[in-house]
Design a protein that fits this description.
This protein has helices at residues 3-10, 14-22, 47-61, 66-78, 85-131, 149-152; strands at 29-34, 39-44. The chain is mainly α.
Length: 155
């Protein structure tokens, strides 16, 4: 199977497949070819190459780095013929990724609370200005508009 066929089949860009080859994640065989448009050694992808590329694609969708993917493939290549040695490595990476996602989720929730609080502060400022149209808006500093309501009371 040629690179263009593999790209269509797996939904990858041929440049991406070449990049994965450059990174050592795949090593398709080369075959001599002579046609009117190309001369040389073309990549010929077998079932093992397709399987590895499919794994790489799915791992990248899970935000695994090239280095992490390479470590799993190394376990796979060096482990028992069943490939089951790489399963524990995948589990380790998933656990690490889950911890990262949970930390990011917590950080995003904290940021959301701050933004909601700031919006409430800005609504209070707008309400105060609307209630007292003669009060100059200059009383408020630009930083007041990104200050949480809880910090405004301290000021």
């Amino acid at each position: 199977m040629k690179i263009s066929d593999v790209a269509k089949r797996l939904g990858l860009n041929p440049k991406t497949i070449r990049f994965y080859e450059e990174q050592g994640l795949i090593a398709p065989k080369r075959a001599d070819s002579e046609s009117w448009f190309s001369t040389g050694k073309n990549r010929v992808f077998g079932q093992e190459d397709l399987s590895r590329l499919d794994f790489v694609k799915k791992a990248r969708e899970l935000d695994f780095s090239i280095k992490e993917i390479q470590s799993v493939l190394d376990y796979y290549d060096q482990g028992p013929a069943c490939g089951c040695g790489s399963r524990t490595r995948v589990d380790e990476l998933i656990d690490r990724k889950l911890a990262e996602v949970r930390q990011l989720k917590q950080s995003l929730q904290e940021l959301e609370k701050k933004l909601i609080d700031i919006r409430a502060n800005n609504a209070a400022i707008a309400s105060r200005l609307a209630a007292e149209p003669n009060e100059p808006e200059g009383e408020f500093l630009i930083a007041d508009y990104i200050l949480p309501a809880s910090n405004k009371a301290e000021k």
